[in-house]
Design a protein that fits this description.
Blueprint (H helix, E strand, L loop, with lengths): L9 H35 L7 H29 L2 H19 L5 H15 L2 H12 L5 H12 L1 H12 L2 H19 L6 H7 L15 H25 L2 H8 L7 H26 L2 H21 L5 H14 L3 H11 L5 H14 L1 H37 L17
Helix pairs in contact: 1-2, 1-5, 1-6, 1-7, 1-8, 1-12, 2-3, 2-4, 2-16, 2-17, 3-4, 3-5, 3-8, 5-6, 5-15, 5-16, 6-12, 6-15, 7-12, 10-13, 10-15, 10-16, 10-17, 12-13, 12-14, 13-14, 13-17, 15-16
């Protein structure tokens, strides 16, 4: 018989949501900051014009590679030691790395610090969503995730404004300072009651490789990653390299990466909120996900058909792309709902970071196909692959709307 947990006080729930939201805000600020200051920072340390795209791709891959490693480390720690330990540890590591990033003078040092920052950032979203999902009621947790994402993605807007106002080194200092400021707010946050309950029992927790011990769990986990892949094709390729696409399109005015990021994340913020409303209205995460993935497909096609018209149209399409990929909060919530409490932080932390880390093979394939297909042909091919993976993953996915999360996963 399932044991009943004592509900968390409303103040504790509100604080958990606020802390998770601000943590994701800082996460997004740094994650997109590199896309915004990429050209200025690389030119500043002596990278020639002809190598800006290849060096930028490499550094982005280093950052995402760090997030892959960090996702596993923080996910395991979250299930073994608690969700709060991750919220503290990850932000400390990220903040130190970002401040150090403001002093870099070479590409190798830039690479090392992007890896470390990536490792630090990897724990924020997964631990925050896991905590929010477990302290809120099953009826309300979708709204909690929506608030976290809605506030969090505005970090990209701040990154764009800061990147347009200050030098790139100052931008990194500001990111590190925000991280340290967030630490003070996290004092007094309650640990998840579900985690505290199983912590007292002799239950295996946080074993990442045990996720793959059965075929059912393996496919369930891979499907979660699959539905998120189109989002980071959009961000990692279409938005990050918007200046390069503008040149290929023959635009009179070349797009600025920072503005492309800002407009796409304004759209993403609106999309995250509306995806939560859509989920609640349909009482189905799968149906809401299908709607937003279909819109993403249409907007990716529009990027290549209509963007070259004017700079205004280009930025408008970027906003639409952000809106279409506004199912990110829903995706992370689905990840948290797929597995039991003893492995939930591991899944919820690793899944979004594997999606982000998918930028590494996505970018590699994009660069590999650029010579035979051109930039546009390569992007369309890679984008089509990620969308096919996403729709196939959604097709067989379990519906988790309103699912009771107070259970443990039997891992054979």
């Amino acid at each position: 018989m399932q044991e009943t947990l004592t509900p968390h006080p409303q103040r504790a729930i509100n604080l958990a949501v606020l802390v998770a939201a601000l943590g994701y805000f800082v996460d997004i600020y740094d994650l997109l900051l590199f896309s915004i200051v990429r050209i200025a920072s690389l030119k500043s340390i002596g990278v020639p014009e002809s190598e800006l795209l290849s060096t930028g791709s490499m550094l982005l891959s280093m950052q995402m590679g760090g997030m892959l490693v960090g996702g596993i480390l923080w996910g395991i720690l979250g299930d073994k030691k608690g969700r709060i330990s991750v919220l503290f540890g990850s932000i400390i590591l990220y903040s130190f790395a970002n401040i150090a990033n403001g002093f870099v003078q070479s590409v190798p040092m830039y690479s090392i610090l992007r890896i470390i920052a990536g490792i630090g950032l990897a724990g924020e979203l997964g631990a925050g969503i896991t905590l929010v999902s477990e302290v809120m009621s099953k009826e309300a947790r979708g709204w909690g995730s929506t608030v976290v994402a809605g506030i969090g993605v505005t970090g990209a807007v701040l990154a764009a404004v800061i990147g347009d106002t200050y030098g790139w080194r100052t931008c990194f200092f500001i990111g590190g300072g925000m991280g340290f400021a967030l630490l003070a707010l996290r004092i007094g946050v309650y640990e998840s009651g579900m985690f505290e309950h199983i912590k007292k029992k002799n239950i295996s927790r946080g074993n990442f490789f045990r996720i793959f011990s059965t075929r059912k769990n393996t496919w369930k986990y891979l499907r979660v990653i699959g539905i998120g892949m189109p989002t980071w094709f959009v961000v990692g390729i279409l938005i990050t390299f918007s200046p390069e696409f503008g040149k290929v399109f023959g635009m009179a005015e070349i797009p600025v990466a920072g503005k492309a990021v800002m407009y796409s994340y304004i759209g993403l913020c609106i999309g995250d909120i509306l995806s939560g409303i859509t989920t609640y209205s349909l009482r189905s995460r799968k149906k809401a996900m299908l709607i937003f993935m279909t819109m993403t497909t249409i907007f990716i096609a529009s990027y290549f058909i209509f963007s070259p018209v004017t700079l205004t149209m280009f930025y408008f399409i970027c906003a639409l792309l952000g809106f279409g990929t506004g199912y990110w909060a829903m995706f992370v919530t689905i990840a948290s709902e797929q597995f039991g409490t003893n492995i939930r932080a591991t899944v919820t932390t690793t899944a979004p970071n594997f999606v982000r880390g998918a930028v590494v093979p996505i970018t590699a394939l994009f660069n590999f196909l650029r010579e035979p297909l051109g930039i546009s042909g390569s992007a369309l091919t890679v984008g089509g692959i990620t969308l096919i993976i996403g729709f196939l993953a959604l097709w067989k996915m379990e519906e988790t709307y309103g699912k009771d999360l107070h259970y443990v996963e039997e891992l054979s």
